[in-house]
Design goal:
Length: 183
Amino acid sequence: MAVGRPRQSGLDERIKHSAVAILGEQGFAGLSVNRICAGAGIPRPTFYRRWPSAIAALVDAFNDRFDDALLADTGDAKADVLDFAVRVRNRYDDPVVSTCLPAIYEAQRIAPALIAPIRDAQRARRKINVATLSRALAAQNFHPILGPFEIIFVLTSAIDQGYLADRPVADDFLERLVTALLR
C-alpha cells in the first residue's frame, strides 16, 4: 500500500508550463518559485520535491523540447542529416522554444551562468551527433570537405540565423545545404 497522496498526472508538465509562461511575460528577472507555484496552483514543497530552483524547472522545460534532436544513423547519411536538420528547424516553432529563446539569448549576453545547464545539454547532444555522423560518414565512405562538427555547426547555425532573422529556412534550402555539405 502506497503512503501519502497519489501523484497528480501531468503535474511536472503543468509546473514547467507555468515557468515558461512567466519567462515569456516577465523575463528571467520575474522568474521565481513563488510565481511558478502560483501559476501552477501548487504549494512550494511540491515544487521543491522536483527542482531546486525556478531556473532548473525552466531548463528542464526547454531541454525536453530537444530530446529528439539527435542524429540517427540508418545507413543513409544524407537522408539522416536532412531529417536531423528538419527536426531541429521545426523545434523553433514549438511554443516553449519560441518563448524561451529570446530570454536565453539575452541571458547569454548579460548572465551566462543562468543558462549554463542549457549550454551543457546542447554540448552533450552535439557531441553525440558528431560521433554519430563520424561513424556514418566512415561507414558509407563519405569524405566531405568539412568535418562532422563543422557540418552540424553550419546546419544548426543556418537554422538559428533563419530564426533570428524571422526567415525560417525552407525544406528545399535545407536539402541543398545538406547536399553541398556532404560533397
